[in-house]
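Table 4 source record.
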Amino acid sequence: RRTTTSATHATMQAVTRTSRRFMSTTRVPIVGGNWKMNAGNGTTKATVMELVEGLNAAPKPKCEVFLGVPYVYLESVKAAVDPAFKIAAQNMYKETKGAFTGEISGEMLADLGVSTVIIGHSERRDIFGETDALLGEKIAKALSLGLQVIACCGEHKEEREAGTTMDVLVPQLEAICTNAATDFSNLVIAYEPVWAIGTGLTATPEQAQETHAQIRTWIADKVSASVADAVRIQYGGSANDKNAAALAAGPDIDGFLVGGASLKAGPFSAVYGVF
């Protein structure tokens, strides 16, 4: 359930008009906390457990919520956290096993009872050089194992300023949707404007809704209207407890992929609490 002020509703009207034909009452909001390379709000298992205890004491989510936990803490968090929170890995490799030092397979995640995996975060693309081709193979593998995939896409600041956002997103979306094939039920798309990740900058509600609507329209044109209507699209650029309500007012914004604000139970519960 979304709460929208009349002022926010008025500002959103122009950018939402073309997307109304895709509005769905069946898309369950989904919020994820991507802890990245953080042990909760610190560097030890003790700080991980502090965050887990805070989440267990926080208001129970009324939407779908997952925690993107570093590999080494997946089992510990899964065992300790309230089952209202799903556990997600932040990455996986495309192969089942073999000589791939430092990698983790989807089969290993499934064996641990991990249900969700984030694939293609901009930090994987920009820092580790992961390509659309590789990410597409990972997506196909994860879906084949029954894992829920959070597939990320996004543009850089200079691309946003040049007005080429969709030119950048389309190849990423093609890799995502082509490798999802016909299995879109376990696919969530996370739109993350790279210029707004960890910078303190955030897309305005109008910018976020406009891009989400363009993504949904592209999916309708290239895949199907039914998939476009059903697929959930998260916003992932510095979403926090202060801006989540305004961003969530967009009818094509189905949740958030939260970074820094997910490392403290209070702000994170405030984010998922807007739904």
